[in-house]
Amino acid sequence: MRRKFAAGNWKMNGLAADLAELEKMVAAKPAPSVDTAICGPATLVHRMAALGWPVGGEDCHAVASGAHTGDISAEMLADAGASYVITGHSERRADHGETDADVNAKTRAAWRAGLTAILCIGETEAEYRAGDTLDVLHRQMAGSMPEGCTGENTVLAYEPVWAIGTGLTPTRDEIGAVHNALRDALIERFGTETGLAIRILYGGSVKAANAAEIFGVADVDGALVGGASLKADDFLPIVAALEAAD
Ligand SMILES: O=C(CO)COP(=O)(O)O
């Protein structure tokens, strides 16, 4: 039985003053029946973790330490109190040219440090319009997901690039068809037990207003939430909707 999971991604947002939002979330003590986490900027991870809410990084380097100015290793995130790290977010793939092989290496780095990887895949608008969504996702999964994925060390996040920060989302049927195909692909690659254990999150313009509808789709195990995770008043209703979902 997969535990539902509501994860936030603060992206390049968050100053010390914004920790007050996380404090509000902690104070609300929401939904013990679902997993929650906020992935925050590296500058805040330590302080976020100290508040007692599960925390993740947004990226990590593939190696543990060394001459890589400005980079953060998975071990550093774990040392700062993180339990998760996002790998392969489309903004890193686009802004930093990260390839599936890079994402694969970063995901293995996350495991090495004892972190759970929230591994992101998703098609661009052009790929969506061309009807190539599943081909793209299968290719990204094949390249980005290392051997050894389990329900504990990896969470898969389907984030259509064209739905991120745009207010657009695929239809329920489209999300359902994609998540169903991803589940089949996980089972084929990792076997039935593991394929059924790996959680698949949807991400892209999830808000309180559409959360219940999205969480009602089969094989949606939760969400990776960007903009609506920055404020407690936006994120907590999403967590509540996940808890209420069948
Ligand atoms: O990229 C996302 C989460 O990783 C989604 O961002 P938005 O929820 O702001 O669309």
Automatic annotation (TrEMBL):
Alphabetical GO biological process terms: gluconeogenesis; glyceraldehyde-3-phosphate biosynthetic process; glycerol catabolic process; glycolytic process
PANTHER family xrefs: TRIOSEPHOSPHATE ISOMERASE (PTHR21139)
CDD domains tied to this protein: TIM
Protein name: Triosephosphate isomerase
Family label: Belongs to the triosephosphate isomerase family.
Subunit structure: Homodimer.
Active site, renumbered: 89, 159
Enzyme class of the recorded protein, top EC level: isomerase
Compartments where found: Cytoplasm
Organism from which the protein derives: Salibaculum griseiflavum
Database matches in SUPFAM superfamilies: Triosephosphate isomerase (TIM)
Catalysed reactions, as listed in the record: D-glyceraldehyde 3-phosphate = dihydroxyacetone phosphate; L-erythrulose 1-phosphate = D-erythrulose 4-phosphate
Function field: Involved in the gluconeogenesis. Catalyzes stereospecifically the conversion of dihydroxyacetone phosphate (DHAP) to D-glyceraldehyde-3-phosphate (G3P).
Keywords, in A-Z order: Cytoplasm, Gluconeogenesis, Glycolysis, Isomerase
